[in-house]
Design brief:
The complex is a heterodimer. Chain A is of the alpha/beta class. Chain A contains six helices and five strands; from the N terminus they run ααβαβαβαββα. Chain A has a five-stranded mixed sheet with strand order 3-2-1-4-5. In chain A, α3 links the parallel β1 and β2. The longest helix of chain A has 24 residues. A two-stranded antiparallel sheet of chain B has the order 1-2. The longest helix of chain B has 31 residues. Chain B is mostly helical. Classes of the chains: A alpha/beta, B mainly alpha. At the A-B interface, α1 and α4 of A face α3, α4 and α5 of B.
Chain lengths: 188, 153
């Protein structure tokens, strides 16, 4: 029995170390299940989290904006493609605000608040900006790069997603059909 | 000459308060870089490149210029980027594994040596033949002798 103690302890330690290694690898492995569900038109329920606003106001949840279309855009000021798509999002927000159909929500990820403020000011963005400091929202959407954009319908289901920069054509194809009155491609 | 001296003196007087008001740096970029991560590339900031790393360095440089010390800078970075920015996380919750696992491995290795070493030595004392290894075959012994002779020559 005593002969088994040392090998047993070594085995136990080895198993514990391998378990820790597997846990670490799983933490950093990309998970495409959400993207697959969106691509398969399964309309998965949108993940939510309570986040602080950039302007220092009360914390907000995506559920606070439910009832209309919510376009969630994960971005950062240092991300060049985010720069490219910001005018498209600004234009979309003007349209959504005018028709009361919903809103764009900007979620700043891995970005210092001062840098985000400068980015928002330089693009004249008027939609709410939330700060995802601990990635609690971004991780729920399996965000692996920036920008990423998700369209959530009035019932809180994700109906479209885009990893990478969005275009006006993408907005027309994925947001316009959800707006009151059906397909209404946005004009410039 | 006197006029130039007066102008110089006036400039010195004007410059002194500005220089005095600039806070003394309490640390430097290199020291902080070694203690924090680039949160996007998941590597230490000291070896990271890319736009997010550059933005992080700008922030650190700004804080150094404000006279913040290492702890204050790390606190500010955590407020901006979350706990992930720290190269060594706080010793709370699951993060404790970072500190405990290496200690546990070292303790286990020492325990293994402490248990196994006396056992090996005991075995060597009771069975010198086993400690010396298996007997060489006649053929191997002949080849070894040949090799040794060649080596001596």
């Amino acid at each position: 029995m005593r002969r088994l103690v040392v090998p047993g302890l070594i085995s136990l330690l080895a198993v514990a170390l391998v378990g820790l290694l597997v846990f670490g690898v799983l933490q950093t492995t990309d998970d495409s299940s959400l993207k697959d569900a969106i691509a398969n038109k399964e309309k998965p329920t949108a993940h939510d989290a309570t986040l602080p606003q950039l302007d220092g106001g009360a914390t907000r949840r995506l559920a606070d904006y439910r009832g209309g279309v919510v376009v969630v855009n994960f971005f950062a000021s240092w991300c060049a493609p985010c720069d490219d798509e910001a005018p498209i999002l600004a234009r979309l927000q003007r349209r959504l605000a005018r028709t009361h159909d919903g809103t764009v929500i900007g979620v700043a990820v891995d970005d210092a608040s001062e840098d985000t403020r400068a980015f928002v000011a330089s693009h004249g963005l008027t939609f709410p900006i939330l700060r995802d400091v601990d990635r609690s929202l971004a991780n729920g959407y399996k965000v692996t790069g920036l920008p990423e954009t998700y369209v959530i319908d009035a019932r809180g289901r994700i109906v479209a997603g885009q990893a990478g920069v969005i275009t006006q054509r993408w907005i027309d194809a994925n947001v316009a059909p959800l707006l009151d009155g059906g397909v209404r491609p946005a004009s410039q | 000459m006197t006029r130039a001296a007066v102008v110089l003196l006036a400039l010195l007087v004007l410059a002194t308060p500005a220089a005095a008001s600039a806070p003394e740096p309490k640390t430097d970029l290199k020291t902080v870089e070694e203690q924090v991560m680039c949160v996007v590339c998941r590597t230490p900031l000291s070896v990271a490149g890319g736009p997010q790393a550059a933005a992080e360095r700008d922030l650190i440089n700004g804080l150094i210029a404000q006279g913040k010390d290492e702890d204050q800078i790390k606190d500010a970075l955590v407020a901006e980027y979350g706990e992930r920015v720290l190269a060594l996380p706080d010793d709370e919750g699951f993060n404790l594994a970072v500190y405990l696992v290496p200690i546990a491995v070292v303790v286990a290795a020492l325990a293994l040596v402490a248990v196994a070493l006396p056992r090996w030595r005991r075995r060597a004392r009771t069975d010198p033949a086993a400690a010396a290894g298996p007997e060489l075959s006649a053929e191997d012994a002949r080849r070894l002798d040949e090799d040794m002779r060649r080596y001596d020559d």
